[in-house]
Structure prediction request, 407 residues.
Amino acid sequence: MREMSHPHLPSHLTRLAQRYGRIYTLRCGNSRDLVSGGGCSVSLGDYSQPWRAQRRLVHGALQRCSHTALHSTIQRQALLLREESQVLIGYNGSAVDLSEDFTVAASNVITMLMFEKEYDKESAELQRLHSCLNKIVSLWGSPWISALDSFPLLRKLPNRPFSRLLEEVARRDDIIGTLLKEFKLTDTHLHMATVDLLIGGTETTAAWLNWAVAFLLHRPQVQSRVYEEMCEVLEDRYPTYSDRYRLPILSALISEVLRMRPVAPLAVPHRALRDSSIAGYFIPKDTVIIPNLFGAHHDPAVWSEPYSFRPERFLEAGGGCARSLLAFGGGARLCLGEAVAKMELFLFTAYLLRDFQFVSCGKEASLPDLMGEASVVLKVKSYQVIAVPRPDGPNQDRAEDHRTHQN
Ligand code: HEM
Prediction:
């Protein structure tokens, strides 16, 4: 229990791996039950026949979003970040925390795909939804909640974070229920699939964008190289997703940020449904397995200088190390939104870096803390950044023209 309440759990578990080997057991009380064994949810539900059917349903629905629709939805949000509602341009060179803007952009991609609904940053409905999802994600990571996995009896005792989690879950269900009623959908599985996509698709992408800017503030040379590459390859237009192979430096940056700070650092807990084995170690039925993706991304046997931010590693030796990236997990529980997320990371980063130079507020001390705060989602601590518009950024008309050339 003490181990699981560490303030930066992924790094702590990575240190334990250095001491005890890549696979080790943590004993947390006697019970192996997960408190969050999430009922009808894809992300927290146990592997079973109905779970497989539900995952197939959500996966199929995501695949049916045509490439073009997804592409233009993300492009639109990237452009909205720039100027249509004067977001970054409107900050006029002042130092600001961009995390909320990134969250609005990421969640609009998901609500557009699901409901064709886009929110303004000021929308009261959006504020309600975000504050609720945000609280749920941070309460999930609380040691007082994790303790209930191992000691279910504690649920009977007063536990403020647990009561707050239940309150937030009730609020969440109310908001999602209203959305589904609007579309005349009431099924419980659908309800939870909506929760999965909103939580999985908003917090992660927004957290990743915040990490990318934070790393670029520490390494401005990388930002310049990405910008120069885009100017050279794209000349005066905005990129499309099909340009990713022609922009290796940008792609390497995206991979390196995913490696350094996998935003779901401990994936989701997996449970062994029967006696099994991993790498020759016996795993008894019902053991909860925590895949430490953060640890795998910092394993010196796989990565040279694993703690250094070096996007160029993905350009060396034909970029072979990309195969060792596990930021989206693997196997039966692989991230359902991987394809959506990859397109989002590429287009948002490309558009932002094409139009803006991100600079820190001047003092060395104001550079973002790169350790971050680890909960279910690994987030960078709040920091301020100045978005300076590039004088020669492409204009809106060229972006419109270019939309017709996507594939
Ligand atoms: C930077 C972006 C993202 C990263 C790094 C990420 C990473 C992950 C990881 C590591 C898992 C757990 C996999 C495992 O346990 O093996 C996961 C699960 C999941 N993700 Fe993502 N994700 C991202 C974006 C998204 C987006 C945009 C969506 C929705 C469109 C999404 C939806 C989901 C869902 C529904 C699950 C649960 C899958 C299951 O349990 O079967 N994710 N994600």
Remarks:
- The chain has one domain: 3-402.
- The pocket of protoporphyrin IX containing FE is lined by residues 42-43, 55, 110, 196-197, 200-201, 204-205, 208, 262-264, 267-268, 293, 327-330, 333-337, 340-341 (CB under 6 Å).
- The first strand starts at residue 270 and ends at 271.
